[in-house]
Write a structure and sequence with these properties.
It is built from 2 helices and 5 strands. It has 152 residues and is α+β, with helices and mostly antiparallel strands. A hairpin with a 3-residue loop joins strand 1 and strand 2.
Length: 152
């Protein structure tokens, strides 16, 4: 089973090769959606790197501020002078998921990139995604044909 991708101009990719059933085919898919999704993911990864660099840069300043605040801090109250009925909880900013419905061409490209060739089969010169991995079982070899003689 070998499926290969060849980039073409205009956000297109040629996919050709044999599937798990040893069927050969070739088709051209539009890669614009899948490439856009990958660029968007790379952008978010780059933002995380920028945030980490800023945090590293600001860390000494934050440490100095924490030390200054510690010096100016009021003495702690005797725990017998108060009773905590419920501890506070720090709030966190909610993050909504970003979900993109992939078109059929993007599904095929994703499956190829993730190495899920056993989920792709050729049907009428078009790759389609199967519901579960497919394992091809070759047909058993045919029994040998022996000549028979009649009427000897």
């Amino acid at each position: 089973m070998t499926l290969t991708k060849t980039p073409l101009t205009g956000d297109q990719v040629l996919i050709d090769g044999t599937d798990v059933r040893n069927q050969f085919g070739s088709m051209i898919v539009d890669s614009s959606q899948w490439e856009g999704i990958k660029r968007h993911a790379q952008f978010h990864e780059a933002l995380e790197l920028v945030d980490a660099a800023i945090e590293t840069l600001v860390a000494p300043i934050q440490a100095a501020m924490d030390a200054a605040n510690e010096i100016g801090k009021a003495p702690e109250l005797d725990p017998l002078l108060y009773y905590v009925e419920r501890e506070g909880v720090e709030g966190t900013e909610s993050v909504r998921p970003i979900v993109s419905k992939l078109n059929p061409d993007s599904v095929i490209l994703r499956a190829l990139e993730e190495g899920l060739h056993n989920r792709l089969i050729w049907v009428n010169d078009r790759l389609v995604l199967t519901a579960a991995p497919v394992s091809y079982v070759s047909a058993p070899p045919a029994p040998p044909v022996t000549p028979t003689s009649f009427g000897d």
